[in-house]
Structure formats: structure tokens, C-alpha cells
Design goal:
Layout: H1 5-14, H2 31-36, E1 39-40, E2 46-47, E3 53-54, E4 57-58, E5 61-62, H3 64-81, H4 94-97, H5 103-112, E6 114-118, E7 121-125, H6 132-135, H7 138-149, E8 160-161, H8 166-176
Parallel strand pairs: 5-8
Antiparallel strand pairs: 1-2, 2-3, 4-5, 6-7
Helix pairs in contact: 1-5, 3-7
């Protein structure tokens, strides 16, 4: 499944409020070991040893979910966080910050928003828990950004991707209400 139901409920519960995140845990202490342990579910999505969504890149081909993350990132996130998660004067480079953000923290931040106050600078990320174009694709966004963060995904649109699995089609139809 594209997005864990328990986390979706958590994301929707957080949506009306903004949470302040001070520090986060490391998502994957040893990324090479995690990639070696990734498994592909029937849905076509890859999971790491902890059951978190992860990516698969073989040559110039990425898994479908990482490709979908690239597409959704560039439709909803790049305006603030810059193309290819490189950052901007307005928002941080996610290719750097995602090195230290766990899956659950990512869900919490995107769904509920984030405030960093101090030093005369106020940085506020709005909550996206009510935006179907974002929350229906949280796993895909996470896998794309993780691949960028650890350096496995180069800049630019992936030249090739696995076909869209039926599970992704079903989830999209259900989540988007169509």
C-alpha cells in the first residue's frame, strides 16, 4: 500500500495544528545495509528492514513510487524547497535535512507543519495533511527525498521507471476520491 492507514489517521489528526519539531532521529544508520535488506511488496513498493518505504534504483531505472515522488515533489514542494530538493532562500534543502529525518517524523512534519523560531528568523512550513495531492503520496515523496538525501538519485527526472502497479492505481483512486 502506498500509505500506511495508521499513519494516514495520524496525519489527518495532526492536520489542523502546527507542530514544532526540535530534533529527529536518523532514518537509516547504515543506508547500504538497508538497501541490501529491502524487499518488494505485492504492491510493487519496496520496504526497508523496519518496514519503512524505500527506493530501488537499477541503473537509470527507478521503482514506480520513487518516480511518483519525483513528480509530486515537483508539483507541490519544489516551489519552496527548490528543484530536486536543493533548497532555496525560502526553505531548506531537503536533500540535506532528509538525512536525519525518520519516516514517522517526515509524516508528522508534512501532515502537521513545522515552525522553527529563533535567531530573528521565523521559518514556518504549512500543514499539508488536508491536501490530497500531498498526503495521498507521502510514501512516494519520502522515497524520492531519501534517494536524493543519500546521493543515490541524481538531479533531474528519472529517465526510466517501473510500470505503475495496480495497487498504486487502486490507492490513488481511493485516496483521491475518484
Amino acid at each position: 500500500m502506498f500509505f500506511r492507514p495508521v499513519l494516514l489517521a495520524c496525519a489527518l489528526a495532526l492536520a489542523p495544528t502546527v507542530v514544532t519539531v526540535v530534533t529527529t532521529g536518523v532514518a537509516h544508520a547504515d543506508d547500504d545495509a538497508q538497501k541490501a535488506k529491502s524487499v518488494k511488496e505485492e504492491s510493487g513498493q519496496y520496504l526497508d528492514a523496519e518496514g519503512n518505504p524505500t527506493y530501488m534504483i537499477k541503473g537509470d531505472t527507478v521503482d514506480y513510487y520513487t518516480y511518483a515522488g519525483y513528480i509530486r515533489y515537483h508539483s507541490d514542494c519544489h516551489v519552496c524547497h527548490g528543484p530536486d530538493a536543493m533548497g532555496s532562500t525560502y526553505a531548506p534543502a531537503l536533500k540535506d535535512s532528509m538525512k536525519h529525518i525518520s519516516y514517522s517524523d517526515f509524516i508528522s512534519i508534512v501532515a502537521g507543519g513545522k515552525q522553527d523560531l529563533g535567531g530573528g528568523k521565523e521559518k514556518v512550513m504549512p500543514a499539508f495533511g488536508n491536501n490530497k495531492n500531498v498526503y495521498c503520496y507521502m510514501d512516494a515523496l519520502y522515497t524520492y527525498l531519501r534517494a536524493r538525501a543519500v546521493g543515490d538519485m541524481p538531479r533531474g527526472r528519472p529517465p526510466h521507471h517501473e510500470p505503475k502497479p495496480q495497487a498504486a492505481k487502486d490507492h490513488e483512486k481511493e485516496c483521491m476520491g475518484g
